[in-house]
Design brief:
Elements: H1 8-16, E1 32-37, H2 45-58, E2 62-66, E3 79-82, E4 109-110, E5 114-115, H3 120-132, E6 135-142, H4 144-155, E7 160-164, H5 180-201, E8 204-209, H6 216-224, E9 229-231, H7 239-251, E10 257-262, E11 274-278, E12 283-286, H8 289-301, E13 305-309, H9 321-339, E14 345-350, E15 353-358, H10 359-362, H11 374-381, H12 401-407
Parallel strand pairs: 1-2, 1-6, 6-7, 7-14, 8-10, 8-13, 9-10
Antiparallel strand pairs: 2-3, 4-5, 11-12, 14-15
Helix pairs in contact: 2-9, 5-6
Bound molecules: 6-O-phosphono-beta-D-fructofuranose.
Length: 408
């Protein structure tokens, strides 16, 4: 287990001392890069931190990490120096050594994607901290909400670079956010496990996965884990169609069914299902749709249905190799952008290249599953139901229909 800092006492000292720049213990005058991790954690955050530190040191920068996301930038300011020694061995570790805050005092988003202005007093405090610490570039690693905060810091004149992270993969400017692949791997592993027990007991199993208002995790894990029904926020579905799929499988001798539900999937009434609120702005927390699907299917079919809510298991654990590589490239590129003075940009993956786009463009709209995408079409081609009417189309509706019906 890597230590947060060479000396634990020294670390506590760093955390509570706000006037770092004037401090006698400050031994360097090198330009300093700051980094923070904000929002829900995900595998790969530590890989970004390590990549930033290693590549920044080679270019002659010092690094500091702000603690608990943007909260570390304001009183009581919390930060730690980062160097090759105290970031060694963190490449493979999930979580973030800097800590993170989801929906803290800085929240710049309400509801799905409605932006609100950050308190100017907070913005001024951040500017003061960056000045005091001689920060020449601040790398903000976060999802849509956290990048909306980064954009406001940039508009306030601060030298900010964004790095997209989220298990939800809902940022359109990048082909993938890191964390997504690891979350899909966890959800797929859960489906593999549910498969064997569902088959043994001839049960219907519902797996609820995260993803906020996008169905990327449900779609990819559903395909990779052999799901039979996938319910997404992007495709309207009905209980009748879900039950029809279960009965169709029954009639084919397959007495069990795996249903994957995205937490943001709308019920047939159009409502999403929430479990309370979080944060200063009282944002709704998604969750509970899986149980509703399970109990409705159970009562309609008079069958045993069990629900598993995967929850934060999707966010924990080690990053996959894909996420390690992506996070490392994002970290190195973020430092390159600072070195070239290209602020207000978010690094992004446009296969096969790592590029950047203005943060303002990156947060303009959320990326959602296209119901006509090749992944959805491939799933349909295999008989996976999305709970809509599409799969009810006759299998003999294509050009070979005449031949099939005449021979049949
Ligand atoms: O954005 C990542 C995410 O895990 C979402 O998929 C989920 O809705 C949300 O965060 C949960 O947030 P929290 O951990 O704060 O409850």
């Amino acid at each position: 287990m890597a230590r947060l800092c060479p000396e634990e006492n020294e670390r506590i000292d760093w955390l509570i001392r706000p006037s770092y720049f004037n401090d006698a213990t400050m031994t360097t005058h090198k330009p300093t890069i700051g980094i923070l991790t904000s929002g829900g954690d995900c595998p790969g955050l530590n890989a970004v931190i390590r990549a930033v530190v290693k590549s920044a040191e080679r270019l002659g920068y010092d690094c500091v990490g702000f603690l608990r996301g943007y909260e570390g930038l304001i009183e009581p300011v919390g930060y730690m120096p980062l160097n090759a020694r105290n970031t060694a061995g963190i490449l493979t570790q999930g979580g973030t050594i800097l800590g993170s805050t989801n929906k803290g005092r800085f929240s710049a988003t309400v509801g799905e994607d409605q932006r609100v202005a950050i308190d100017p007093v907070l913005l001024e405090q951040v500017a003061t901290t960056l000045r005091q610490l001689s920060i020449c570039g601040l790398i903000c690693v976060g999802g849509d909400g956290s990048l909306a905060i980064a954009q406001q810091l940039y508009q306030h004149g601060m030298p900010v670079i964004g790095v997209p992270k989220t298990i939800d993969n809902d940022l359109g400017a990048t082909a993938f956010t890191f964390g997504f692949d690891s979350a899909v791997a966890s959800a797929t592993d859960a489906l593999d496990r549910l498969h064997t027990t569902a088959a043994s007991h001839e049960r219907i199993m519902v797996l609820e996965v995260m993803g906020r208002h996008a169905g990327w995790i449900a779609l990819h894990a559903g395909i990779a884990g052999g799901g039979d029904v996938i319910l997404l926020p992007e495709i309207r579905w009905t209980f009748e169609n879900v039950c029809r799929k279960v009965l169709q499988r029954d009639s084919e001798g397959k007495k069990f069914t795996l249903i994957v539900v995205a937490e943001g999937a709308h019920l047939p009434t159009g409502d999403t299902v929430t479990v309370g609120t979080h944060g200063e702005r009282q944002q709704s927390k998604l969750g509970g749709v899986g149980e509703i699907v399970a109990s409705e299917v159970a009562s309609r079919l008079r069958r045993e249905v069990r629900t598993v809510v995967l929850g934060h298991l999707q966010r924990g654990g080690n990053p996959t190799t894909f996420d390690r590589v992506l996070a490392t490239q994002f970290g190195a590129h973020a430092v390159r952008l600072i070195h070239h003075g290209q602020f207000g940009e978010m690094v992004c993956y446009r296969p096969p290249n790592i590029e950047s786009v203005p943060i303002a463009d990156a947060i303009r709209s959320l990326s959602r599953v296209d119901p006509n995408s090749s992944a959805v079409q491939a799933a349909r081609a295999l008989g996976i139901s999305f709970g809509d009417a599409a799969e009810l189309v006759s299998p003999f509706a294509g050009p070979c229909a005449a031949e099939a019906s005449s021979s049949g």
